[in-house]
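Case study 2.
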Amino acid sequence: MSGQVVVAMDIGGTGMKCGLVAVDGPVLHTERHDTLAARGPEAVTAAICDIAEELAGKARASGQTPVAAGVAIPGVVDEVRGLAVFSSNLGFRDVPLRDLVSARLGIPAALGHDMRAAGLAEARLGAGHGSDDVIFVGIGTGIAGAHVRGGHTNSGAHGAAGELGHIVVRPGGPDCPCGQRGCLETIASAASVARRYVARTGVNTSAADVVARVIAGEDAAAEIWRETVDALADGLLTAQALLDTEVFVIGGGLGEAGETLLGPLREALAARVTFHRMPRLVKASLGDTAGLRGAALLGLEALSTSSIGKNG
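Prediction:
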Protein backbone atom coordinates (compact mmCIF):
# COMPACT_ATOMS: atom_id res chain seq x y z
CA MET A 1 0.00 0.00 0.00
CA SER A 2 3.06 2.25 0.18
CA GLY A 3 2.80 5.25 -2.12
CA GLN A 4 -0.93 4.83 -2.75
CA VAL A 5 -3.09 7.92 -2.22
CA VAL A 6 -6.69 9.06 -2.38
CA VAL A 7 -7.67 12.25 -4.20
CA ALA A 8 -9.92 13.96 -1.64
CA MET A 9 -12.13 17.04 -2.08
CA ASP A 10 -14.38 18.86 0.40
CA ILE A 11 -16.57 21.23 -1.63
CA GLY A 12 -18.19 24.22 0.07
CA GLY A 13 -20.40 26.97 -1.19
CA THR A 14 -17.48 29.37 -1.58
CA GLY A 15 -14.33 27.27 -1.38
CA MET A 16 -12.89 23.81 -1.96
CA LYS A 17 -10.47 22.04 0.35
CA CYS A 18 -8.57 19.57 -1.78
CA GLY A 19 -5.71 17.20 -1.16
CA LEU A 20 -3.95 13.88 -1.35
CA VAL A 21 -4.41 11.50 1.57
CA ALA A 22 -2.32 8.37 2.03
CA VAL A 23 -4.31 5.14 2.23
CA ASP A 24 -2.90 4.60 5.73
CA GLY A 25 -4.22 7.97 6.93
CA PRO A 26 -1.82 10.93 6.76
CA VAL A 27 -2.76 14.01 4.74
CA LEU A 28 0.17 14.47 2.36
CA HIS A 29 -0.85 17.55 0.37
CA THR A 30 -3.55 20.21 0.65
CA GLU A 31 -4.65 23.16 -1.44
CA ARG A 32 -7.63 25.46 -1.60
CA HIS A 33 -9.61 26.76 -4.53
CA ASP A 34 -12.61 29.04 -5.03
CA THR A 35 -15.75 27.13 -5.85
CA LEU A 36 -16.94 29.90 -8.20
CA ALA A 37 -20.53 28.81 -7.72
CA ALA A 38 -21.78 32.04 -9.31
CA ARG A 39 -20.67 30.67 -12.67
CA GLY A 40 -23.27 27.91 -12.47
CA PRO A 41 -23.37 24.18 -11.75
CA GLU A 42 -21.71 23.15 -15.02
CA ALA A 43 -18.69 25.33 -14.23
CA VAL A 44 -18.48 23.95 -10.69
CA THR A 45 -18.65 20.39 -11.99
CA ALA A 46 -15.93 21.10 -14.55
CA ALA A 47 -13.73 22.70 -11.88
CA ILE A 48 -14.11 19.69 -9.57
CA CYS A 49 -13.11 17.28 -12.33
CA ASP A 50 -10.22 19.50 -13.48
CA ILE A 51 -8.80 19.93 -9.98
CA ALA A 52 -9.18 16.21 -9.25
CA GLU A 53 -7.22 15.44 -12.42
CA GLU A 54 -4.53 17.95 -11.47
CA LEU A 55 -4.21 16.39 -8.01
CA ALA A 56 -3.86 12.93 -9.53
CA GLY A 57 -1.15 14.31 -11.81
CA LYS A 58 0.70 15.83 -8.87
CA ALA A 59 0.55 12.50 -7.08
CA ARG A 60 2.05 10.65 -10.03
CA ALA A 61 4.74 13.30 -10.47
CA SER A 62 5.75 12.68 -6.84
CA GLY A 63 5.96 8.93 -7.35
CA GLN A 64 2.61 8.22 -5.73
CA THR A 65 -0.27 6.21 -7.18
CA PRO A 66 -3.81 7.61 -6.96
CA VAL A 67 -6.09 4.63 -6.33
CA ALA A 68 -9.42 6.28 -5.48
CA ALA A 69 -11.17 9.62 -5.17
CA GLY A 70 -13.66 10.95 -2.64
CA VAL A 71 -15.76 14.10 -3.00
CA ALA A 72 -17.90 15.61 -0.23
CA ILE A 73 -20.52 18.26 -1.03
CA PRO A 74 -23.34 20.09 0.78
CA GLY A 75 -27.00 19.47 0.05
CA VAL A 76 -28.99 16.31 -0.57
CA VAL A 77 -26.72 13.48 -1.71
CA ASP A 78 -27.58 9.99 -2.94
CA GLU A 79 -24.39 8.17 -1.97
CA VAL A 80 -25.55 4.86 -3.44
CA ARG A 81 -26.06 6.26 -6.95
CA GLY A 82 -23.36 8.90 -6.62
CA LEU A 83 -25.77 11.73 -7.37
CA ALA A 84 -25.66 15.32 -6.18
CA VAL A 85 -29.45 15.40 -5.91
CA PHE A 86 -29.81 19.02 -4.80
CA SER A 87 -27.50 21.73 -3.52
CA SER A 88 -28.74 25.29 -3.34
CA ASN A 89 -25.22 26.58 -2.75
CA LEU A 90 -23.79 24.89 -5.83
CA GLY A 91 -26.85 24.79 -8.07
CA PHE A 92 -26.67 21.00 -8.41
CA ARG A 93 -29.72 18.98 -9.40
CA ASP A 94 -29.18 15.27 -10.06
CA VAL A 95 -25.56 15.67 -11.14
CA PRO A 96 -23.81 12.24 -11.48
CA LEU A 97 -20.68 13.65 -9.89
CA ARG A 98 -19.22 10.36 -8.68
CA ASP A 99 -19.24 8.83 -12.14
CA LEU A 100 -17.91 11.99 -13.76
CA VAL A 101 -14.91 12.08 -11.42
CA SER A 102 -14.30 8.35 -11.75
CA ALA A 103 -14.41 8.53 -15.55
CA ARG A 104 -12.02 11.48 -15.63
CA LEU A 105 -9.45 9.82 -13.35
CA GLY A 106 -9.97 6.18 -14.29
CA ILE A 107 -10.18 5.14 -10.63
CA PRO A 108 -13.04 4.33 -8.25
CA ALA A 109 -14.75 7.38 -6.75
CA ALA A 110 -17.27 8.11 -4.03
CA LEU A 111 -19.63 11.02 -3.45
CA GLY A 112 -20.77 11.94 0.03
CA HIS A 113 -22.42 14.65 2.11
CA ASP A 114 -19.91 17.10 3.58
CA MET A 115 -21.26 16.93 7.13
CA ARG A 116 -21.54 13.14 7.11
CA ALA A 117 -18.01 12.91 5.75
CA ALA A 118 -16.73 15.13 8.55
CA GLY A 119 -18.67 13.09 11.09
CA LEU A 120 -17.26 9.85 9.70
CA ALA A 121 -13.71 11.19 10.07
CA GLU A 122 -14.31 12.43 13.61
CA ALA A 123 -15.86 9.09 14.57
CA ARG A 124 -13.12 6.92 13.07
CA LEU A 125 -10.05 9.12 13.42
CA GLY A 126 -10.89 12.04 15.70
CA ALA A 127 -12.64 12.86 18.96
CA GLY A 128 -15.16 10.03 18.61
CA HIS A 129 -12.56 7.32 18.04
CA GLY A 130 -13.20 4.32 20.29
CA SER A 131 -16.95 4.89 20.53
CA ASP A 132 -19.35 2.72 18.58
CA ASP A 133 -22.09 5.34 18.34
CA VAL A 134 -21.26 8.99 17.62
CA ILE A 135 -23.26 12.04 16.63
CA PHE A 136 -21.16 14.80 15.09
CA VAL A 137 -22.72 18.28 15.32
CA GLY A 138 -21.27 21.04 13.16
CA ILE A 139 -22.23 24.52 14.37
CA GLY A 140 -21.28 27.16 11.84
CA THR A 141 -23.35 29.31 9.50
CA GLY A 142 -26.02 26.67 10.05
CA ILE A 143 -26.24 23.53 12.17
CA ALA A 144 -26.15 19.99 10.85
CA GLY A 145 -25.26 16.60 12.20
CA ALA A 146 -24.08 13.13 11.27
CA HIS A 147 -24.92 9.90 13.04
CA VAL A 148 -22.13 7.32 12.82
CA ARG A 149 -22.77 3.84 14.18
CA GLY A 150 -20.31 0.98 13.85
CA GLY A 151 -18.10 3.16 11.68
CA HIS A 152 -20.82 3.88 9.11
CA THR A 153 -22.99 6.93 8.58
CA ASN A 154 -26.76 6.94 8.33
CA SER A 155 -27.91 9.02 5.37
CA GLY A 156 -31.63 8.35 5.77
CA ALA A 157 -34.18 7.16 3.23
CA HIS A 158 -33.78 10.21 1.01
CA GLY A 159 -30.20 11.33 1.69
CA ALA A 160 -31.26 14.09 4.07
CA ALA A 161 -30.57 12.64 7.53
CA GLY A 162 -28.85 14.75 10.18
CA GLU A 163 -30.58 18.10 9.75
CA LEU A 164 -30.43 18.87 13.48
CA GLY A 165 -30.51 22.57 12.74
CA HIS A 166 -34.13 22.24 11.66
CA ILE A 167 -35.44 20.73 14.86
CA VAL A 168 -37.97 23.31 16.06
CA VAL A 169 -36.87 24.29 19.55
CA ARG A 170 -38.72 27.61 19.86
CA PRO A 171 -42.19 27.29 18.27
CA GLY A 172 -43.23 30.61 16.78
CA GLY A 173 -39.64 31.85 17.00
CA PRO A 174 -37.48 33.46 14.30
CA ASP A 175 -38.21 32.68 10.67
CA CYS A 176 -35.94 30.04 9.17
CA PRO A 177 -35.07 29.90 5.44
CA CYS A 178 -36.39 26.31 5.46
CA GLY A 179 -39.91 27.69 5.92
CA GLN A 180 -40.37 26.86 9.59
CA ARG A 181 -40.06 29.13 12.61
CA GLY A 182 -37.91 28.64 15.67
CA CYS A 183 -35.48 26.10 14.21
CA LEU A 184 -32.39 25.37 16.27
CA GLU A 185 -30.09 27.12 13.83
CA THR A 186 -32.12 30.35 14.03
CA ILE A 187 -31.06 30.56 17.68
CA ALA A 188 -27.79 28.69 18.11
CA SER A 189 -25.77 28.76 14.87
CA ALA A 190 -22.68 30.95 14.83
CA ALA A 191 -24.41 33.27 12.37
CA SER A 192 -27.46 33.54 14.64
CA VAL A 193 -25.36 34.23 17.73
CA ALA A 194 -23.70 37.17 15.98
CA ARG A 195 -26.99 38.40 14.50
CA ARG A 196 -28.82 38.32 17.83
CA TYR A 197 -25.98 40.13 19.58
CA VAL A 198 -26.06 42.89 16.96
CA ALA A 199 -29.84 43.17 17.26
CA ARG A 200 -29.62 43.44 21.04
CA THR A 201 -26.65 45.81 21.37
CA GLY A 202 -26.28 47.57 18.03
CA VAL A 203 -22.63 46.51 17.99
CA ASN A 204 -21.57 44.77 14.77
CA THR A 205 -19.50 41.74 15.71
CA SER A 206 -18.82 38.06 15.01
CA ALA A 207 -19.70 34.93 16.96
CA ALA A 208 -16.03 34.57 17.94
CA ASP A 209 -16.14 38.09 19.38
CA VAL A 210 -19.30 37.23 21.30
CA VAL A 211 -17.48 34.24 22.82
CA ALA A 212 -14.61 36.53 23.81
CA ARG A 213 -17.11 38.90 25.45
CA VAL A 214 -18.69 35.97 27.32
CA ILE A 215 -15.27 35.04 28.69
CA ALA A 216 -14.69 38.67 29.66
CA GLY A 217 -17.94 38.66 31.63
CA GLU A 218 -20.04 41.05 29.54
CA ASP A 219 -23.72 40.82 30.55
CA ALA A 220 -25.24 41.17 27.07
CA ALA A 221 -22.97 38.47 25.64
CA ALA A 222 -23.67 36.20 28.61
CA GLU A 223 -27.42 36.53 28.06
CA ILE A 224 -27.09 35.65 24.37
CA TRP A 225 -24.88 32.71 25.33
CA ARG A 226 -27.40 31.35 27.85
CA GLU A 227 -30.11 31.44 25.22
CA THR A 228 -27.79 29.68 22.77
CA VAL A 229 -26.85 26.95 25.24
CA ASP A 230 -30.48 26.38 26.25
CA ALA A 231 -31.55 25.99 22.62
CA LEU A 232 -28.67 23.62 21.88
CA ALA A 233 -29.52 21.53 24.95
CA ASP A 234 -33.12 21.22 23.76
CA GLY A 235 -31.96 20.16 20.30
CA LEU A 236 -29.45 17.63 21.62
CA LEU A 237 -32.04 16.18 23.97
CA THR A 238 -34.32 15.53 21.00
CA ALA A 239 -31.48 13.86 19.13
CA GLN A 240 -30.61 11.77 22.18
CA ALA A 241 -34.21 10.67 22.62
CA LEU A 242 -34.28 9.49 19.01
CA LEU A 243 -30.79 8.00 18.63
CA ASP A 244 -29.39 7.27 22.12
CA THR A 245 -25.77 8.01 21.26
CA GLU A 246 -22.63 7.50 23.34
CA VAL A 247 -21.02 10.81 22.47
CA PHE A 248 -21.78 14.11 20.79
CA VAL A 249 -18.73 15.53 19.02
CA ILE A 250 -19.19 19.29 18.70
CA GLY A 251 -17.41 20.96 15.78
CA GLY A 252 -17.72 23.88 13.41
CA GLY A 253 -16.88 27.49 14.14
CA LEU A 254 -18.86 27.71 17.37
CA GLY A 255 -17.39 24.40 18.51
CA GLU A 256 -14.03 26.17 18.67
CA ALA A 257 -15.31 27.85 21.85
CA GLY A 258 -14.41 24.59 23.60
CA GLU A 259 -15.32 24.43 27.26
CA THR A 260 -16.87 27.90 27.16
CA LEU A 261 -19.62 26.15 25.23
CA LEU A 262 -19.30 22.53 26.35
CA GLY A 263 -19.22 23.21 30.10
CA PRO A 264 -22.59 24.97 30.34
CA LEU A 265 -24.02 22.76 27.58
CA ARG A 266 -23.27 19.62 29.60
CA GLU A 267 -24.99 21.15 32.63
CA ALA A 268 -28.03 22.23 30.62
CA LEU A 269 -28.37 18.83 28.92
CA ALA A 270 -27.90 16.94 32.21
CA ALA A 271 -30.68 19.06 33.76
CA ARG A 272 -33.03 17.96 30.98
CA VAL A 273 -32.17 14.26 30.92
CA THR A 274 -34.71 12.03 32.68
CA PHE A 275 -34.82 8.40 31.57
CA HIS A 276 -32.23 9.03 28.83
CA ARG A 277 -28.60 8.08 29.27
CA MET A 278 -26.42 11.18 29.50
CA PRO A 279 -24.00 11.16 26.56
CA ARG A 280 -20.48 12.54 26.62
CA LEU A 281 -19.93 15.91 24.96
CA VAL A 282 -16.49 16.50 23.46
CA LYS A 283 -14.86 19.02 21.15
CA ALA A 284 -14.06 17.92 17.61
CA SER A 285 -10.35 17.33 17.07
CA LEU A 286 -9.75 17.32 13.31
CA GLY A 287 -10.57 20.97 12.65
CA ASP A 288 -11.24 21.98 9.07
CA THR A 289 -9.53 18.84 7.72
CA ALA A 290 -12.42 16.63 8.90
CA GLY A 291 -14.37 16.89 5.64
CA LEU A 292 -11.26 16.23 3.56
CA ARG A 293 -10.28 13.19 5.60
CA GLY A 294 -13.85 11.94 5.53
CA ALA A 295 -13.90 12.25 1.74
CA ALA A 296 -10.74 10.14 1.65
CA LEU A 297 -12.40 7.48 3.82
CA LEU A 298 -15.32 7.37 1.38
CA GLY A 299 -12.88 6.98 -1.50
CA LEU A 300 -11.23 4.04 0.24
CA GLU A 301 -14.62 2.41 0.74
CA ALA A 302 -15.30 2.82 -2.99
CA LEU A 303 -11.95 1.21 -3.75
CA SER A 304 -12.74 -1.80 -1.60
CA THR A 305 -16.01 -2.48 -3.44
CA SER A 306 -15.09 -1.50 -7.00
CA SER A 307 -13.85 -3.65 -9.83
CA ILE A 308 -11.97 -0.68 -11.31
CA GLY A 309 -8.29 -1.22 -10.78
CA LYS A 310 -8.80 -4.79 -9.56
CA ASN A 311 -9.16 -6.07 -13.08
CA GLY A 312 -6.98 -3.58 -14.87
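The domain at 130-284 is CATH 3.30.420.40 (Nucleotidyltransferase; domain 5).
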